[in-house]
## 1
Amino acid sequence: MASGLLLVGCTSNSDNDGSGSTDAQSAPGSIGIVGDQGKGGDPVEGGTLSFAGYSPVSTLDPAKTQPAGSTGGTEMAAVYDLLVRYDATTEAFEPQLAKSLDANDDATVWTLKLRDGVKFSDGTPLDAEAVVASTNRFNTNRGGNSQAFTAGVKSVEATDASTVTYTMNQSWTEFPSMLAFGHGMIVAAGSDQPDGTFKPIGAGAYTMESLTPGADLVLQAREDYWNGKPNLDTLKFVAIKDDQPKIDALNSGGIQMAFLINDDAVDTAMATLPGYLETVSLGNSIVQINQREGRPGADVRVRKAMQMTIDPTVVDTRAKNGEGMPGTEMFQSWSKWHNDIAPVPLDTDKAKALVDEAKADGFDGKITYFTTQTQSGQATALSIQAMLQPVGIDVTIEYGASVTDVVKRLYVDKDFDISTGSYSIADPAPFTRLYSALNSTSSNNIIGVNDPKMDKILSDVQTAKDDDAKRAALADLQTEVNSTAPFLPLAAGHSFVPWTDNVYGVVPSLDAIMLLDQAWIE
């Protein structure tokens, strides 16, 4: 199946009869369930579902694990649930663990109502005070997206036992997305043990039986889950390196679900398996340029030279067999946020002149490229190395042994000149990831951007009161990225969560976080 044109249908709690069957529609860039699975019978109780994720978790603390579908989001949603989830059918954030979430007229105050009688797995009530305490804990421990949250939210208050009021610093129409990630995973007060250890206590459908960091996680169903006992007795999250072995395990019945991200693997799996497909901007790869003092990328001329030299189509051909969605636009034509600002054209003559200028001022012409030691990672690195050499940039390639090694070097040590990565900007919620990656105060700003103009544009994206205003702000962001080249877009991307055709009742949320409390194996 061509990656640029997808057959996509979407489901929700309300319209999914548990069969996993959907009516497919042709829509480039859509998100939703794909594949005509057919109708299942009545839900079956019992059994174990095995899921091979992208990066195995080392802890179930939402403040210590990036709350995304690729990095523990599905696992933690099973333990904590989500206050709200994204429904691709309604194209809106719908109540999940919460009963309702409503805004005032200018989206400066959001009111969350909780369901009656919900309890954590230790028997304590999930009330408004618990939500406030969990939110404060998450922000204090600098969980994922916490800086965006604290920059936008003035206060979080328990108005009464079942009501939480979020008061914004200014209008924020995209705020519900925060409650579909880590801020929506409510941790019980008893999770923080007296000896300083962490015990995962949530209001979700499952509790932890065992965790071997980096290897496997076993969860057991709760009899007293607020939405009824889950159909499945056990969820088992296992570690399988690389996408093709995951597909092999799906086909052999060794696992029932997986998280896939490589374009060829996604296309292979979609040809035979149902699952949840999510298309994102800046998805499969961007070139991240470290512009901190002392790095070659601190010189904008070096960044601009790379911007005018690296051809995404060449990278796609060499690394992805031409099956990706290459392009230098931040938001391609399929995106809701596509705009008329053209990206910077390729021009190797101008690039060479800029490199020569930089060398005259002390640049030695050498940079280090750090990436994962996968087939696609190596092919991407070699193609970029080959393109930069003729303009006078000598690239040395270094490989990380594992995803964990790459994360440490990029996000903790920030020890790299350039690397490839992903911002994975989903159309329903573009602000959060952009803020995390590019705001000058964000701890996830690994490339060291310190641009007051970009900070102002990001604020405009956050406070936009309608789609037209947000699109205009994102066009301004494209203009600033064209001018300063903090990163280089290479492609939009997909993630795909396939399941075997005997699995039913999976409910997706944003960023490929999957809710499994209604799932069953026939």
Note: The longest strand covers residues 275-289.
## 2
Amino acid sequence: MLISLTLQNLALIDHKEISFDERFNVITGETGAGKSLILDALSLCAGERADSGIIRHGADEASVFGEFDITGNPQVADWFAQHDRALEEDTLLIRRKISNQGRSKSWINGVPASISELKSLGSILVNIHSQHAGLELLKPQFVVDWLDRIGELGELKSATKTAFHHYQTLKKQADEAKSQSAQRADRMALLSAKLADIEPLLLVNFDDIEAEYDELSNLEHLMREAVESAVLLDNDNDTPSVSSLLARAMKICDNNAGSKTFNECSHILSVAQEHINEAAAKLYDYAEQQLPDEARLDELNTLISLAHRLSNKYHTPIKELVADAHNWQTELDTLGALPDNDTMDAQVQAAYQAYLTAANALDEARISIAPDICERLEARLLPLALPNARCEFAFNQKPAEHYNAHGKYDIALLFSANVGMPLQPLHKVASGGELSRIALVMQVMVAGSGEYHTPTLVFDEVDVGISGGTAQVVGELLRRLGKHQQLLAITHQAQVAAAAHRHILVHKEHGEQTVSNMQIITDDAQIDELARMSGGVNITEATKAHVKSLLNDIRHADEMTANIPLEELQNFHQSNHD
């Protein structure tokens, strides 16, 4: 919901902030007063193209600032999540600045934003039905979505969309697998060959192998070294050894055991003697073992030679080969687990059939309900100066390759406003005023269905081509619709303006430089403006009395229609005015 707009140096406005009611707001003023500036400012907040020509004469830049209440709006929350932006409050602030060099900058909640981001967010916040821009209802997808909402086909629509996306995902995977099948086979063969190459290394610890080989290949030398070391530690001949020298030292300490120091050293030397005896025994045992096993040496030598050869072959250090092998095995297992082409084709075909089943159910439901919805649309256009309106949905089946998440048919809404004239697509036959009224009725029907979260609706001269009782019906419809969602409308019809919950008047003030001013009017000021709209330049008491009567009629209609469903409101108006 739009809370307020602040306009700075925009065309004839120097600085103005205007707030809006959460229901039906109307904007009036004489031709050229600047009524469309509010729509221009809102369009800029919604990401529309900026033109430096809109900057006020003598200013370097123009800016607009929009404040929106987004309480309970899941679409906005989803948008922020999809764009990795933080949403911490229920108020959304959009700022847009345009320089006289033609450059434009945008911010969302104070954070810089691209125009594409602003446009996508703006489409959630605002829906502008402009006389000078392509109406939303001219877009084919709008017609399809509208038909589905009024027909309450949400579940069928969602099932079709889900089934189509599942089919597309499987088809893409199958196509990629087929295009890569030859490469996959080659890759699996290569991985298998590599793993076979290094399999012997996977069964051993290479560090242990190298250590064992080094020891066995030097065993004779090591045995001689062991004998020499053992003799130095302990021997039976006259050559002094560590053990004999240690025994002499221990005897001296024992002889002086009365001394604390000698006593402590005696214990220490006793422990040392045990370690020396143990080391000497191990060295003698090592020296007396058999000579190395030549078969074991050959086996170790073969493993080491293989490791160095594979290291050179794969340009990888020996210690990293084993880690690479684990990665190769994982990749091989993954490739081997992929289904074959026939299996994937069967999965794709099953998904396609599931999509066709869902799409057929959706399209059959659409075709079934379309005539009834057209009758309801025609009935609601009748009191809006379109007594001969005829509508019909055209269903044209697409080529199979063009089926999509929305179904198998192109759907268009055909229209004719005149007797004897053929039905044609809306954009070819409907005038701007007719389009606005059709859009209004379509929105009334959506709001009546109670299942659609709508943005702020903006109607630019929805009353073109109507007057009198028809204008009053449009006004009452807008007022009633405003109780379900926020509306803004520019109008020249007093009957429409009188129905608003908030009346904004735009008028020029002439001083050193002409400016446009905007103000919310009530009571006498509102009566004067409605009288101007009804009676022209010369405002009489009779004109004012007529306006007061019109306002009383609006209040009376509020009381009379309070419990009438929105979608049935036009039938009430038609019978009441008849």
Note: The chain has a mean pLDDT of 81.
## 3
Amino acid sequence: MGRPARRRSTLSTPQARGTGNGPSTAVASPPVISSVSPAAGSPGGGTPVTLTGSNFTQATVVRFGPNFALSYTVVSATQITAVAPPGSGTVQITVTTPGGTSNGVAFGYAAAPTLTGISPATGPAAGGTTVTLTGTNLLGATAVSFGSTPASSFTVVSATQITAVAPPGAAGPVQITVTGPGGTSNGVAYSYVVVAVPVLASVSPGQGPVGGGNTVTLMGSGFTGATAVRFGSTPASSFTVVSATQITAVAPAGSGTVQVTVTGPGGTSSGVAYSYVAVAVPVLASVSPGQGPVGGGNTVTLIGSGLTGVTAVTFGSTPALSFTVVSATQITAVAPPGAAGPVQITVTGPGGTSNGVTYFYVGVPTLTGASPAQGPTSGGTTVTLTGTNLLGATAVRFGAVNATSFTVVSATQITAVAPPGVTTVQITVTGPGGTSNGVPYTYVPTPVLTGLSPTQGPLDAGTTVTLFGSGLTTTGSVLFSSTPASFTVVSDTWVTAIAPSGPAGPVNVRVITPGGSSNSVVYTRVGPPGI
């Protein structure tokens, strides 16, 4: 290749001055290259580069590997600008002067970048959207442009990825390009769209403690994609976009009255006032009732102070199903489901979260037995009920009728006095955990005797006497006066008994069943005839 013409330097060349009797000649030092910028360029050539070093005066040749620079200019003894020729791979740039040829510095021929994708492909006309560009040969990118406008900023992540922040633009599509040492890429389409500015209609609650930390609900429109919520100039501690019309945010610490704003892709909303106030932390003193079923659903009353403006009631970590602030000293709340055992109920208001009061979740009572399992229709029988979760029982019922009285002996036992009744009913126990299963209890009618046969017999034991009547099925004993007799229940109307021995004369015979004692019929003992 022929040597290219070069632009002449404006520097003067020092003339060697003779000293003594004859002329002398200065020996020029060889040039030295310390850096090149940029260090890469297009394979097609044409990239302007700046060489920095020393002893560049009177440079006669600049080479890129074996090829001459398309042109070069000696700017000073320490700087040369040159235009790279076409080439490939990595070559060494050298400078030649009358003093010799310099060291080499590396220069790479890079392929032009290409773009294959973009995400997202749309953004607001106000700019600010971070987009991810994918492609090849992206290392060393020097510019990212949205149409003719440079990106607000960009970061080369790798040879295949760049992130860039979109500048403001007019509504409609533009081509994004990347420029690097190898040239400028193809374009990928990006559309600027008009996004509505968020509108903030309300903030609830409209006040909170100066220490912040309370959760407020923002209502309005255009909240999708919100990027910031501010209380005055202070960002919210955190926020969650619930929907296009609702955001929940945690207030930061502050003072006085500030304007709450929402910033989104379309801009920043107008402000809604929020006041920082010195609000006392709520205090809970008691809960009534202090226990309830594991299934929840029961209403409890909380008593305390500073309850005005309470925004949450929790049982342990579970929110109440609902609650009503009755006054500054009272709240009613519906308990959520929970596991058996104690939890702490707390309330949260503008001043913070209260202390806790203990509430017990109680399992539903269960019954496993009743003894005795039957009694007279007139009631009055003391029945022992066994089961589980019987502590705190508030009612014992025989069918639909309350027990005459009952006593909770332990978590597994209750004694109850049966009320009057008929037929078979289910005994149930109601407690804080709910109402138990039922166990059967049978009301037995009072037995009635209508006659006996034979009506008389000897003084000695052994005579079989048949008793007739009704309600005899459950006969528990047959008494001749106060003396028990052995007996056999034949049917509800017929019992046979072996008369015991006794003195001559009449004796009252009766039967006793769970239904009570029957009326008496007379049996007469007759002595042997005299001699």
Note: The mean pLDDT is 91.
